[in-house]
Write a structure and sequence with these properties.
β27 and β28 form a beta hairpin. 29% of the residues are buried. This protein has three domains: 168 residues, Domain of unknown function DUF4458 (Immunoglobulin-like), CATH 2.60.40.3540; 122 residues, no CATH class; 131 residues, Immunoglobulin-like, CATH 2.60.40. The strands form seven sheets. Strands 3, 4, 5, 7, 8, 9 and 11 form a seven-stranded antiparallel β-sheet that branches. The protein is globular. It has four helices and 31 strands. By secondary structure, the protein is mostly beta strands.
Length: 454
């Protein structure tokens, strides 16, 4: 395969150009020059790097770039026209590339993080034809200075920065250090995965795994993410956080109900949990509708796609439990909690959904979550109820919850993770809530949790 690459460094040039207006001393002006090195056309060099894609015949017409500047890392995302002269290619003047110099300073730091070169499509940006590879990407070895590039600009200067680039193939976008939707902007969504592993005897474990996700219907598609692994731990029970990824909507011409994402999940070792992994892989496809169905009402967070490795997959993954603690803030005292605190939830039967806290039983499913939130009985008190802590009693019965925590995107909720394998019996716990108003008042109540099989 004919290929190109380059093995040289970028250079910065501060120049004054004849007939250009004088540059103010409170700014510095930037221009970028994409550079391909013709030396790699030599047969010996091509033989060494024949994995690189062929070059397009299209003329470079636009640059799509991202940079940050200053102590606050102010971002700039820009598409700018590419011009040429006897010295080569360079980006046209653009007001957004006038970088302000901080007051009292003579320089400002700039970091270029993304740089793509596009063809012309009737006067507008077309396809990506060249890309500057990023550090730690597979193609970074073919350039002397992969992105990010950082340098200081002097006040009143116009700086030309050479950017080493490689010919581009969108089927290999990850090899340059970019994600597919960096190259082709699309509507984005959140997609999460969680996995269980079952031994031959049928015992369920929370799984550790490696996830590959492709744009397409097989591993021959465009890689979106490779070798993604969950955050695992043990805080009394082994747990693995869902792997949550940002995915693009399908290409034009692919219906929302058609498969367009392909995933492979491979079980990996977890020495302290189930030990050495067998050769277990689960693969499948997803449509845009299936991705959207996993979204929560906030439109940002998502339920996970539940994967079973060597398990008889359940037809019912269960559901999350939402418990609301309603407090009569006008009358509550430490002595009348059963008369002034009321529990309701989305799961319990009429008999167990008692308003008396000490008798309330929250029903939960394996591998799901329970959400606690608080509210006042009367809306005009100006007070708020925050669930501050949930913890297991000393004689707490069965260990149903693996941990409790909060998430920044779910304000007002305390969240508990339910263990992955089904057990019978109750877990007895204490719930602590605080009333915030003119004064702060904190109380502790003691409901129960019970597991239902999926």
């Amino acid at each position: 395969m004919a290929v190109i690459g380059l093995l040289f460094y970028s250079c910065n040039k501060d120049e004054s150009v004849p007939n250009e207006p004088e540059i103010s001393q409170d700014i510095a002006v930037l221009s970028f020059g994409p550079v391909l090195n013709e030396m790699v056309n030599r047969a010996a060099v091509r033989q060494q790097i024949d994995d690189l894609p062929e070059c397009s015949d299209a003329t470079p017409a636009f640059a799509q770039l991202s940079l940050t500047y200053g102590e606050s890392d102010t971002p700039i995302d820009l598409v700018v026209e590419i011009l040429s002269d006897e010295n080569g290619l360079f980006t046209a003047y653009d007001e957004e590339l006038e970088i302000p110099i901080p007051s009292g300073s003579t320089t400002v730091s700039v970091t270029l993080t993304d740089f793509l070169v596009l063809s012309d499509n009737g006067g507008i940006p077309g396809d990506v034809i060249w890309a500057a590879p990023k550090m730690d990407s597979e193609y970074a070895v073919f350039v002397e200075t992969p992105l990010p590039l950082t340098w200081d600009l002097r006040a009143g200067s116009k700086t030309y920065v050479d950017v080493p680039v490689l010919c581009f193939d969108d089927r290999q976008v990850n090899l340059y250090g970019y994600l597919f939707f960096d190259i082709t902007p699309k509507e984005l969504s959140t997609l999460c995965f969680f996995a269980n592993y079952c031994t031959e005897s049928g015992r369920h474990y929370t799984a550790n795994y490696s996830l590959d996700l492709y744009l397409g219907t097989s591993s021959l598609g465009t890689p979106l993410y490779l070798d993604q692994t969950p955050e695992t731990g043990n805080d009394g029970q082994f747990y693995a956080d869902p792997v949550c990824l940002t995915v693009p909507a399908p290409e034009d011409g692919i219906d929302a109900s058609e498969p367009y994402l392909y995933y492979e999940i491979t079980l990996t070792d977890w020495p302290d949990n189930y030990g050495t992994a067998g050769n277990y892989i689960e693969a499948g496809t997803l449509s845009w509708l299936q991705v959207q169905e996993l979204l929560n009402p906030d439109g940002t967070t998502a339920e996970y796609k539940h994967i079973y490795l060597n398990c008889e997959e359940s037809n019912d993954d269960g559901e999350d439990t939402y418990v609301t603690v309603t407090v009569d803030t006008r009358n509550i005292t430490a002595d009348n909690l059963n008369e002034t605190v009321f529990f309701t939830d989305n799961r319990s039967s009429t008999a167990s959904n008692s308003a008396v806290p000490e008798n309330h039983i929250a029903l939960v499913n394996p591998n799901r979550r329970i959400f606690w939130s608080g509210t006042t009985l009367e809306s005009d008190t100006g007070e708020t109820i925050i669930i501050t802590e949930v913890y297991r009693k000393e004689e707490g019965g069965e260990m149903i919850l693996t941990r409790t925590y909060t998430e920044p995107d779910l304000e007002g909720f305390l969240i508990g993770d339910v263990r992955s394998d089904y057990i019978e019996g109750f877990e007895f716990y204490n719930l602590v809530f605080t009333i915030y108003g003119e004064t702060e008042r904190t109380f502790t109540i003691d409901p129960k949790i019970k597991m239902q099989p999926n």
